Amino acid sequence: MPNKRSGGGLSATQQAAKFLGVSVLSGAVLAGIALPAFGALGLAAKGSVESFDELPANLKTPPLSQRTTILDSKGSQIATVYSRDRTVVDLKNVSPYMQKAIVAIEDSRFYQHGAIDLKGVLRALNKNVQSNGVSQGASTLTQQYVKNVFVEEAGDDPTKVAQATQQTIGRKIKELKYAIQVEEELGKKKILENYLNITFFGEQAYGVEAASQRYFSTHAKDLTLPQAALLAGIVQSPSRYDPVNDATEATKRRNTVLQRMAEVGDISEAEAAKAQQAPLGLKVTQPKNGCITAVQGASFFCKYVERVFLSDPVFGKTKEARAKLWNQGGLTIRTTLDPQSQQSVQSSLKDHVYKSDKVAAASTLVEPGTGKILAMGQSKPYGYGKNETEYNYSVNASMGGSNFGFPTGSTFKPFVAAAAIEEGRPANQTYSAPYSMQYPATVQTCSGNPWVNDGNYKLENESTTEKGPYDLKTAMNKSVNTYFVQMLADIGMCPVVKMTNALGVVQGNGDKVPEVPSSMTLGSTGLSPLTMASAYAAFASRGMYCTPIAIESITQTTNGKKKSLEVPKSTCSRAMSEKTADTINTLLSGVVDSGTGQQAGLSGRANAGKTGTTDERKNAWFVGYTPNLSGAVWVGSATQKVKMTNISIGGVYHAQVYGGDTPGPIWRDAMTGALQGKEAPSFNLVNIPSNNPGRGNDDDDDDDDNNNGNDDGFIGGLLTGGTSDGGTTGGDNSTGDIGNLFQGTSNGNGNGNGGRG
């Protein structure tokens, strides 16, 4: 019961008179008799009765806010989140000592009186006059419960909370009317149960179960006499009698409760004396609220789940409605997170990248054919301290990620290849692919207005030895930039736009990938690991793209009753033909077998993937998959200011970082652990006839394509994709920093190589 304050400079006599007015009104309401109409008090009372009659007949009791539990796919707890830490329990699950203690100290005549205790009113009035102030109130447990309902309904709105607790006659009248209703409808035991579940016990604990756990690490049903007395004593002033911060005051208050229990006959004097000598015996459990406490490094996934809930209309038509449901809590959210996969991702990240490194790494695993997010982690832990971050590098900005995502480099090239094959280009398509070339003079776009190389933009390959002509398989293995720009010029940008749209590929800020050659071929535009893992999962599932999902089911508990809530579903649609997907799988299998991704290859199971490294080595990627798991790994600086040359990452020195030598091994180890004990299905590989016109000036002995070539292939390459006159690209893929947070978008002309192998 809160301490009453002296109000507005009134004298002790005036305060007592004010209190008497409320108390007399209480008795009048109960007895149904007329109030004396004399003097100021009578007029005030008359006005109060009219206000009383105008109040709504029923008290609207909001569901009590409770903690929400987030589970992984196996049912193990990831974290609990709550606006108020509360677990509602039945009265039968509350210790009899606790029931007696709270009644004895707060309302010892609880079972004898109605909603208002007239004897208590007179007793309080007498003591207040004697103390020359308002030292004692006369609120019954029922009235206190009603006031707590008002506070609960106010939520975290400070204005509404103030209105719910203000010491005015108007509020008291409202409280009295609803107390009468509650007494009639609920009965004493239910009122006591509701009171014990709603009231605040300090230390962020709402309700007796949470308080029992917080102070004694036990359940409410197991509270001993001294423990129950301590908790009952806290209620009057949770800050003053907080046993964690003031054991002396808390002990005095506990002993007062014990003495009162003896006075009313709940316990004997001997029991009270013995309990008063007992130590407080605190065994405090620190509150674990929020995703920051998530296990196995799943904090970022936990926050992603929260963001999904607060943004998806399935949980409420408005932002306010969704937030209200989230804060109300009482939810059990079973997610898609696979504990084996999550542990593997975190272990791999920890092994390869230190949280204190100049760069960070993020990895996400997705299940092909379902869109389920099985793991999500990063090298810098969730938090606000040194070498920690609250930004989720795996997701888009709207879900707590970077402003724009991160340039993907050559991991974008399979999208171009898939678009070309869908357009009817052969799987052994050949282009001249010189070491250096100008961008084409024009490239068709979806709008019909061609992109024009008005900046004399030029691009080149990673190595001077990379000189075509090349067929698609060789170009993919070696990640030849000029080959894929020639392919784009051949088919135009619209097929690539259609393909990326079908694969859910958007920039980190949610915008479409711009129709400029560097974005459409070389990955100069920022994307997120989740976007890339989900898109590559469509290759694994033979062309079916499924939108990513994180929530399997939600059960809400309200007033002891459980109901299932609707949850977002993955939408699966065909992004490409099975033949196209099988062809890409065949091409990308070559990358991990003998191309740029050899260090990432898995043993004992079919796997495919693609490396990517951006200009100045500010980003390195590996995105790969098996038929039953897809994963993306990014390594780089969130601010895009670190060039990964002459750098130590995870204790390993790198003269230059490549997609294959840093993200690749992270992917390999994460996938290996995630897939341990799982089936190892095969891809539906296709036969791609060799059309390699010769090795040209390429002296890379690791090339797995040993065809000596033929004149037809060479001429065909020149005819279909020879070098265009007129364009060059300007050097590097500069990335603007937005408020020193994450990289900016590529410039409008798309100049810059963007993609490396």
In terms of topology, how is this protein built?
Blueprint: H1 12-31, H2 39-54, E1 68-71, E2 77-81, H3 96-106, H4 118-130, H5 141-154, H6 158-165, H7 169-186, H8 188-198, H9 208-216, H10 225-234, H11 247-263, H12 269-277, H13 299-311, H14 319-328, E3 331-335, H15 339-352, E4 360-366, E5 373-378, E6 406-407, H16 413-422, E7 430-431, E8 436-438, E9 442-443, E10 451-452, E11 458-460, E12 470-471, H17 472-478, H18 481-491, H19 493-502, H20 517-521, E13 526-527, H21 529-540, E14 544-546, E15 551-558, E16 561-565, E17 572-574, H22 578-594, E18 608-613, E19 619-626, E20 629-636, E21 645-649, E22 652-656, H23 663-675, H24 711-721, E23 737-738, E24 741-743
Parallel strand pairs: 1-3
Antiparallel strand pairs: 1-2, 3-15, 4-5, 4-20, 6-13, 7-12, 8-11, 9-10, 14-17, 15-16, 18-19, 19-20, 21-22, 23-24
What does this structure look like?
The chain is of the alpha+beta class. It contains 24 helices and 24 strands. The strands form 9 sheets. A 5-stranded mixed beta sheet has the order 2-1-3-15-16, covered by helices on one side. The protein has a 5-stranded antiparallel beta sheet with strand order 5-4-20-19-18. A two-stranded antiparallel ribbon has the order 6-13. α2 (39-54) crosses α7. Mean pLDDT is 83; it is low at 1-52 and 695-753.
Concise account of the structure shown:
The chain is built from 24 helices and 24 strands. With 757 residues, it is an alpha+beta fold. The chain is elongated and about 105 Å long.
Count of distinct strands: 24
Largest sheet entry: 5 strands, mixed
Give me the secondary-structure category. Answer: alpha+beta
Q: How far is the N terminus from the C terminus? A: 69 Å
Give the strand content.
Answer: 5-15%
Give the low-confidence spans.
1-52, 695-753
Strand order, biggest sheet?
A: 2-1-3-15-16
- What is the count of DSSP helices, taking H or I runs of 4+ residues? 24
Alpha carbon gyration radius: 35 Å
Helix content: 25-40%
Mean pLDDT: 83
- Please state the overall shape, judged from the principal axes of the Cα atoms: elongated
